[in-house]
Amino acid sequence: MFYLQNICDNVFLYMFNNQKDRGMTILKLLAQDHKKVKELLDTIEKNQDFRLFKSFKEEIMTHNALEEEVFYTSLRSRLDNLDILIEANEQEHDQTAELIERISEIDVKEEKCKIFSVIKKSLEAHIAKEESDIFDLAKQHFSSEELEKMAVIFQKLKDEGLVDIRSQGWQF
Ligand SMILES: [Fe+2]
Ligand SMILES: [Fe+2]
Questions:
Q1: Which pTM was predicted?
Q2: Considering only the top CATH level, what class is 2-163?
């Protein structure tokens, strides 16, 4: 709680001290993460080589945790009747995590490839849905300043590795 309070207290100072961050919204940061994840998936599939799987795992697990912590928590706080949509997406995050654990425990390459292709397809569909339906809702219900503020908090949590903090109550 102390960390988040500290982050919120310093958020505007941080933004104005970092001109390069001006105009950077949570939607752009999430889309950057999505692009990186999709590139890693494409490379692993193309080369049928799982040496990049650990990087993919770290990238997507951090992304999903922060997306829920910052973006979904904000959406929930602002919009009624959104729980079903958000919960469905969070369930998809959990399913991805389960499949990633399964793949990490398997040694047979053919089996790994089968599970990997399920992860890739479902994640691509999840990302497409997020970037259309959820991003549209966020644009309708949050100002540019709020989307920028979320970006700052998202980036600071990512930089400081505070990805395990769960819904400590900060809201817009
Ligand atoms: Fe997601
Ligand atoms: Fe996402």
A1: 0.84
A2: mainly alpha
